[in-house]
Amino acid sequence: MPDNPWERALSQLHSTALRLKLPPKLIARLEKPDNVIEVSVPVEMDDGREEVFHGYRIQHNNLLGPYKGGLRFHPKVDMDEVKALAFWMTIKNAIVDVPFGGGKGGITVDPKKLSAGELERLTRAFTRELAPSIGPNVDVPAPDVNTNAKIMAWIRDEYSKIVGTDSPAVVTGKPVGEGGSQGRTEATGLGGFYTLMEIIELIGRKHRDLTVAIQGFGNVGSFLAGYLKDAGFTVVALSDSKGGIYVARGITDLQAVAECKEQSGKLAGCYCVGSVCDLSNMELLGGRDTSSAEVLELPVDIVVPAALENAITKENADNIQASIVLEMANGPTTREADDILGKKHVLVIPDVLANSGGVAVSYFEWYQNMHEQEWTREDVFRKLREKMEEATRNVYATSQEYDVSLREAAYIVALKRLAE
Ligand code: NAD
Question: What is the pLDDT of residue 274?
Answer without folding.
Answer: 61
